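Hello Y.,

Per our agreement to keep a running log of every chain we model this quarter, I'm adding this entry. I've kept the format consistent with earlier entries: sequence first, then predicted structure.
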Amino acid sequence: MKKLFLLGIAVLLLYGLHQPCSGQETALKGTPSLRVFSNFKKGITESDPSSAFEVRRVYLGYSGAINEHFSADVKLDIGSPEDLSQYSLIRRYAYFKSAGLNYKKGRLNAYFGLFDMQQFKTQEQFWGYRYIAKSFQDEYKFGPSADLGAGIKYQINDFLEVDATISNGEGYNNLQADDNYNKGFGLTFKNKQGVIIRGYYDFIKKETLQNDLVLFAGYQNSLFKLGGEYNRKFNSSFLSDHDLLGYSFYGTYFLNDKWEVFGRYDILRSNKAESDNQPWNLARDGSAVISGLQYKPTKGVFMSLNYQDWVSIAKNGTDKAFLYFNLQFEL
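Predicted structure for the entry above:
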């Protein structure tokens, strides 16, 4: 199956390369980009009263059209390591977040290389505050935000779009070390009234079968937007009967062109395996609240004063609460 999928992508790309382009051929002309996430945070609990100024992430990118059907892009992700030691935050690493070739003709869009995954891209865009907090699946490691592989999207009609991907399944900051690939399939419904509904399923098999089921629904108009998602990861980390279950609900009220009020509530749970007397991921199970104001003083600049917490479900767990001032600027 994966060989046929990759062969189909290759045929599409080769076909596009042999199509005549309108107009005279010109050298690739691209657009550089810069996006920076920074913040100041202050802990408001006895367990963590710390405060700090931080630059958490910088994206450097370049994209451009090769001809009327082909385009290419590359994006460098510079941030802190994922470990939580006090020394890790002063270090920085750099990864290629995307580096791929895109082909678009009519209703078809195909891509190959390192690209953003479709697993939670729709939810992340609808949530809209990535510089403040990652979307649910990204935050709780339900899947990588980008990966190496190939994919296609096809616009069936004005309302429905289908997508399919095959990828390493290791994420963009890990190397493929086996012959197992993640296969994903999604269907998205959108209408002009602001309704969006999406379903997604993927699977990868190693020692056991690991698969994800994702359902999302949202509505947006000129005054507000509301969205909710259901996430289920079966056999997490390829451990049989170790499932993760999560819900995320979020909304925004647009006060005017510059000011917004937003809120979000996350719930993360794990199941009890047959041989256990408590959930296998109990130490990390809990709920989170994010709420605040966003101000856009000018194009490309976003500021937010917000509250973020984490309430552990475990009796001996650690609860956290912070006040944040977040800043994003981009060119």
